[in-house]
Design a protein that fits this description.
The chain has helices at residues 46-66, 85-96, 110-122, 136-139, 162-176, 190-205, 224-233, 244-256, 272-276, 300-309, 319-338, 348-356; strands spanning 26-27, 30-39, 72-80, 101-105, 126-129, 155-157, 181-186, 209-215, 237-241, 263-265, 285-289, 361-363, 366-368, 380-387, 390-398. Strand 4, helix 3 (110-122) and strand 5 form a beta-alpha-beta unit. By secondary structure, it is α/β, with parallel strands linked by helices.
Length: 405
């Protein structure tokens, strides 16, 4: 999903995380395996981050309750990255320094992931995100030239990429919304720029016209100048590449300024907080990865268990994909234990990474599996529209614009 562009050093410390697991990490005769979690649990994006944290905790609690891995007790170690790459890197370094950590779930932001990937690689610890969508993370900077090279064999994700999402948005706008002319705005971050670019490529390929483009700061909350430009362009739709803290106020100011067409964005907009920030959100659109869990028979137990657990915060956009990401790590640990006579080997981290490539199961969001890049094989995207103060799903489809073979 989202990406923060704050510059950070790419270097990372390699920490000692080997050695045998002794009695000091036994719990009731069981070996303790720690799953780290990194997400913004404070700040403007905390609504999404808290849903991620809670959903991972539910997966860990379920595995322990059912005895999913014989002889193993799982523990979640959740850290707040504040949506900042340097903090995410620090968190990854801290988690990698604990020999009991065999996987890290997160982060939310693609920019934070970029700062964590090298730490993960150097310490041979699995990193799996339920929300990152920037293609570069798995396929490298030349993916647009179809020169796709896996960057980090320790990195996986249960969310599909912006190459898929932006193209879906462009096609949905043209075919389903019958939009002929769109005004495109981005927040200058890699996520927003990439999403907007993918939207433009697909929309114009199908025959749509771009009425104008504009770049804003993700910290802006006063959009008078932008509103004036959009109003003069008279588009059928405004597309925004960015996140809900800015897009909520932008949408309201557009409507207040006389721009009556919908605002559309990607999963960075798909949050209940977008509606809270925007009194005129009615009719706006956002896409998000996967199908809404409320419509999936496979998610009924997850929803019931989440409610029964009594979490104060909703699971939000990434609850299902987070549960599946966490369960992927648990299944990889299970495969390693089963393949080593019921015990964790000394090189458990290496073995877990290898096992992740073969993980497959029926998850909350559907079939969970990873391709040779570490990307999810599930490319389903859903279009949502704000209706009566809530996001309502309008259309879901598996979108395959390209062949990564």
């Amino acid at each position: 999903m989202l990406i923060i562009t704050t510059a950070v050093a790419t270097g990372a410390l390699t920490l000692s995380a080997c050695g045998s697991r002794g009695e000091d990490n036994k719990s009731g005769g069981k070996t303790t395996v720690v799953i780290g979690l990194d997400a913004p649990t404070t700040g403007e994006l905390s609504a999404l981050g808290l849903g991620i944290r809670n959903s991972a905790q539910l997966a860990v609690d379920t595995a322990n309750k059912t005895g999913e891995v014989k002889g193993v007790t799982f523990k979640l170690e959740a850290l707040d990255d504040k949506a900042l790459p340097n903090v995410g890197q620090q968190n990854a370094t801290k988690l990698a320094g604990d020999k009991d950590v065999l996987g890290i779930v997160g982060p939310l932001n693609s920019g934070v992931a970029q700062s964590m990937q090298q730490v993960s690689k150097q310490n041979n610890v699995t990193l799996i995100s339920p929300a990152n969508t920037t293609p570069d993370l798995t396929q490298g900077p030349d993916w647009k030239k179809n020169k796709r090279v896996r960057q980090f064999d320790t990195y996986f994700r249960t969310a599909t990429t912006d190459e898929v999402q932006g193209a879906f948005d462009g096609q949905y706008a043209w075919e389903k919304m019958k939009v002929k002319k769109a005004y495109v705005i981005d927040d200058q971050k890699t996520y927003g720029v990439g999403l907007a670019s993918s939207f433009k490529d697909q929309f114009t390929k199908l025959g749509g016209k771009i009425a104008g483009t504009e770049h804003v700061s993700p910290d802006d909350r006063d959009f008078k100048a932008v509103v004036s430009k959009v109003k003069s362009a008279k588009p059928d739709l405004v597309f925004y590449g960015g996140e809900y803290p800015a897009s909520g106020p932008l949408s309201q100011q557009l409507k207040d300024g006389g721009v009556t067409v919908p605002l559309m964005g990607g999963d960075g907009m798909y949050s209940g907080d977008y509606i809270k920030l925007n009194k005129k959100a009615q009719g706006d659109y956002a896409s998000s990865v996967g199908k809404p869990v409320e419509e999936l028979p496979s998610a009924k137990k997850f929803i019931a268990d989440y409610q029964a657990a009594g979490f104060k915060e909703p699971y939000e956009a990434y609850g299902g994909s987070t549960y599946d990401a966490t369960w992927s790590v648990i299944q990889a640990v299970k495969a390693v234990v089963d393949g080593n006579g019921g015990k964790l080997p000394d090189d458990a981290r290496k073995k877990v990474v290898e096992a992740m490539n073969k993980v497959t199961f029926d998850g909350v969001t559907g079939k969970v599996a990873f391709d040779k890049f570490g990307d999810t094989t599930n490319t389903t995207i859903t279009a949502y529209q704000v209706d009566k103060g809530a996001w309502a799903s309008r259309f879901s489809a598996e979108f395959k614009k390209f062949d990564k073979s």
